[in-house]
Amino acid sequence: MRVSIQENLLPGRDLAEKAQRAREYGYEGIELWGSATFGDRMGDIRSALANAGISAACICAGYRGSPLARERRERDEAMGDIEALLAYAGELDATGVIVVPVFGGPQVPDLHPWKDAQAMERELLAAELPRLNEAAAKAGSLVLIEPLNRYETHFVRTVADAAGFCGAHGHVAVMADFFHMSIEESDIAAAIAANSGHIRHVHLADSNRQLPGHGHTDFLPGLRALAVAGYRGWMSLECGVPGRAEELLPRCAAHLRGLVEQART
Fold first, then answer.
1. What angle separates helix 188-195 from helix 219-228, to the nearest 10 degrees?
2. How far is CA 179 from the centre of its chain?
3. What domain range includes position 140?
4. Each residue of 145-158: pLDDT tens digit?
5. Quick one: which of 122, 127, 139, 191 has the fewest CB in 10 Å?
6. 3-state percent breakdown (helix, strand, coil) of the chain, nearest 5
7. How far is residue 255's CA from residue 249's CA, in Å, rounded to a whole number?
């Protein structure tokens, strides 16, 4: 298990400085923010990572529209952006691109009594995934479906929900987030163990969405479940920093390394 950090959490004037700080603080990688203009950053990203001696862990969303938007134009926009980001992830040897199928409530119509909105969404996402799987396979990266919690989405809220879309697609996997799991899963470790074959990226945040150790989530059982499953992927901080980053981020990296060592014993 390798520990990384989202670029926005790091102090620094630019990515080059942030990458140096990440390495100094004890992180092995950076999770990058996606955008429709991500390609314009590729030169700077490569240079920053190489100079700091760290890796690109993943690309976090950043696509326009939504794969489950009501309007076809917005769906096409999202699909095209995700395909482009998958290619960039492959070039950077990052795990893949985090994809949230939809935020908030349903955008597609409820066509009861034929099909309700969620049935429409399930079938629409299932129809879109072969195209994204093909793009990810070509790029050598992964589509990482992220379950959110009930306050952020109505659709795909558990690790099992996300894993249900992975079966037939070798380049579609699950991004498991400890904060969302603390709300939606009755047993985080059990959810991880039951779906470990599909989990290829992890987000770390405590119960209050702050740095691990600043809330009441017990990370050790979940990390043990990952260790037992032989998980060797990235775990990225996606959370608030309740104080001076220069002090708290190195402390958090050390704390996480200690938890990983405990989880392996």
1. 20
2. 12
3. 2-264
4. 999 999 999 999 99
5. 127
6. 45, 15, 35
7. 10
